[in-house]
Amino acid sequence: MLFLWSTLSPALLLLFPYVEDLQHVAFVDAMPRSVRRRLIRSYVGTLKRHLYARGDGRTLLAKNTLAAGRISSMLEALPDMRVIHLVRDPTRAIPSALSMFTRPWNAFAPERAGDSAQTHRLATLLLDYYRRMTELRRVLPPDQYIEVQFDELTAEPVATVERIYERL
Question: Which residue, among 74, 73, 43, 48, has the nearest Cα to 60 in the 3D structure?
Fold first, then answer.
C-alpha cells in the first residue's frame, strides 16, 4: 500500500471505478523513467526505514498482489529482490479479484459494477498482471523467482514454505 500515498496504485480503482482514466496507475513500468525513479527511490527509502526500525539481520517479505505493473521498476531498484509468485487458477483468481473491486463500486457507482465496460477493463488489467508475473519465470534466474501453486500452499503450508526457504 506504500504506492497508494503517491496515488500511483491500482488500489485507487477500489474507490474510483474509472479504469479507462486511471490506466497510468496500473502500469508504473510504462511511465517516464524520471517518474519511475522518483517513485521507486521513495519506496526503497521507506523499506530501508522500516528495516532499520525493525532491527538488523532481517529479510523483508512484502506481500503485494498489485505489484505486476511496477515489478520491473522494483527489480531495477532492488536487483537482488526475490519473487515468490503465488499462482491461483485464473478462472478463480480473476473473478475473486473482480469482486474485491466491484463490491465497493456497488455502493457509490452501481452502473460501473456488474457486467459493465469498467468491469471488463478491470478483468483485462488483471489478466495483463497475471501474464506479466508469469513472464518473470522466463526472465529471472531460479534463485530469484519461485512459482508456488495456491492449492499446494493451502494443502501443505509448512512443506511449501520450507521448499520456498530451501530454494531462495
Answer: 48
DSSP designation for 80: T
Query: Does 3 score more than 80 pLDDT?
Result: no
Classify the phi-psi angles of 57: left when phi > 0, otherwise alpha if psi is within -120 to 50, otherwise beta: left
CA atoms within 13 A on the CB side of 62: 20
Collect all residues with Cβ–Cβ distance below 8 Å to 101 and sequence separation of at least 6: 13, 14, 17, 122
Three-class secondary structure of residue 40 per DSSP:
helix
**106: Cα separation from own chain's centroid:** 24
DSSP of 93-148: HHHHHHHHHHHHHHHH-GGGSSSSHHHHHHHHHHHHHHHHHHHHHHHS-TTTEEEE
Residue 37: CB atoms within 10 Å: 14
77-123: pLDDT as tens digits: 999 999 999 999 999 999 999 999 899 998 888 888 888 999 999 99
Amino acid identity for residue 165 in this structure: Y
Cell triple for 71:
515489478
Beta strands in 15-112 (DSSP E): 83-87
DSSP 8-class letter at 37? H
Q: Which amino acid, 61?
A: L
